[in-house]
Amino acid sequence: MEELTTTLTRQARVGDRNGPRSSETPLPYHEDASVDLDTLRGTLQVWADLIAQRRSLSTPYGTAVELARWLIMFPTEIAGHPDAADMHDQIMSVTASARRTIDRRPDLKFVGPCDGHGASQLSDDLPQGCGEDMFAHLHAKAITCRTDGCGAVYDVEQRRAWLLEAAADQLRTAKQLSDEIAWVAGLTISPKLVSMWGLRGKLTIYGPHPRDARQSQRYRLGEVVQVAIDHGLNAQHKRMEASGAA
Q1: In total, how many domains does the chain have?
Q2: What is the reported pLDDT for 63?
Q3: Which terminal residue of the chain, N or C, has fewer Cβ atoms less than 10 Å from its own Cβ?
């Protein structure tokens, strides 16, 4: 459940597809994780209601974690319920769906939507790309859109530069920033360093995302990148820019 919540509140895709940047743009959340979490909670709530009725107890309410903890206090009632098999199948099904959402291959990185910008080998039928999200391996130089009938080819470094610009005003936790900035800006920054800059007044500190169970403080991605460069952590960034300009 904690992993699913983390998936829900982390940046699954860096930056919006369209429109201008906004300092008030909320942290995007993983839509599949949101559905999985809501479905899991709803399923647990139904069965908690049934067990509470059999025990003549007040109906419990709470998060998926709280409902699960409540249910495991009544193993005998669950095992003896006439619909126990259905309960098992439903919970296992939604748990499997959540696991698939969580377990996206970590070696693939989001490089933006297929929008035709800077692309080569564009299809005559799709001159502006197909709009599908694209993911590249960590050390890939180019990415080919795999959508049937598309096949547009993009330079990965250019897509990373696009991501950095698109996400500049997005708010992230220190841990998220450490992971994402390494990809989009080529900078190595630890979560501890981001937090320290915040405490020293070098970064603006923003409140946590409303769906973040850990209530972690957030920082603006572009501001963190600029502070890192100002502190001389820009050797990799300069190499990335030089590579992109070549």
Answers
A1: 3
A2: 81
A3: C
- Helix/strand/coil percent split, the chain, to 5: 50, 10, 40
Q: Three-state SS for 73?
A: coil
Q: Which residues contact 189 (CB under 8 A, 6 or more apart)?
A: 177, 178, 181, 182, 224, 228, 233
| Containing structural domain, residue 213 | 167-245
Co-location of 23 and 79 in the same domain: yes
**What is the enclosing helix (H) or strand (E) of 244?**
helix 235-245
End-to-end CA distance of the chain: 45
In 105-217, DSSP assigns E strands to: 108-113, 133-137, 142-144, 153-155, 171-173
Structure tokens at 62: 């709470």
pTM score, whole prediction: 0.54
Residue 33 in tokens: 């994780």
Q: Collect all residues with Cβ–Cβ distance below 8 Å to 143 and sequence separation of at least 6.
A: 111, 134, 135, 136, 153, 154, 156, 159
Neighbour count for residue 225 (Cβ, 10 Å) = 23
* pLDDT for res 8: 41
Residues of the chain whose pLDDT is less than 70? Answer: 1-37, 97-106, 233-246
Within this chain, do residues 13 and 65 fall inside the same structural domain, yes or no?
A: yes
Enumerate the β-bridge partners of residue 172.
219
| pLDDT attached to residue 9 | 43
pLDDT of residue 29: 40
